[in-house]
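FIELD: query
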Amino acid sequence: MTFDYYFKRILKDAFPSDIIIDNDIKVGTLPLIIDLIIKIPPPFLKNEVQNYSNTLPVLIRNFREINIIEYKSSHDIPNKGDLLKLFGYFGLYAEQNNFELADLINQKCTLWYICCLKPKFLKKLTNKSKIVLEKGKGLYKISKSILGFNYFILIIDELELKEENYPLLLNLKGKKLVEVIKKIIREGLIKN
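FIELD: result
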C-alpha cells in the first residue's frame, strides 16, 4: 500500500547507510511477511547512534541491534491480534536466523508495533498495567517483566507536534495532517 511504502521510505531516508533497513521479510513456510526490520551493526549502535539522536529520537533512542516493526497506516484498523502476530513473526525470524535465548535476554532485539491511530484495545491493556506510557507522548512499552525483552507500541497521532516528529506525523490523515503541514509551513521548513 502507498502509505506503507511512504512510511518505510521515511525511515530509509532518515538513517545513515550503516543502518540496514529491510522490508517485507518473509518468515516461515506460509506467506508471512514482516513489514520492516532495521538492523544496526553493534559498533555503530555503540559508538555512532548518539550522533543521530535528533533523527526520529522516539525510535533511535530505543533501537537495538535488530528492530522488528509492524506498521499500521492511518487507513488500517489496528487490533490486539496484531500484537500477538508480531510475536509469532519474531519467533519465526529468530528461528530462521539462529538466535540464541541469550540474544533476547541481552536486549539484542526490540519489537515495534507502530500505528497512526490509537488502537481501541490499548486503554484496556494500560488499565491492567500490562502496558505503560514511556517518557513523552505516544510511546508505550509492554512490561518487560512479562516478556523479558523490549516491545514498544508507538502511536503516531499522540506524538508531540515538533520538528523531530514531522517525518512520522506526515503519515496521518485529515485535520491532524493539515495541522502538521500548516505548522511546517509556519516554521519555514517548506514554502507554500
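FIELD: remark
The two ends are 28 Å apart (CA to CA).
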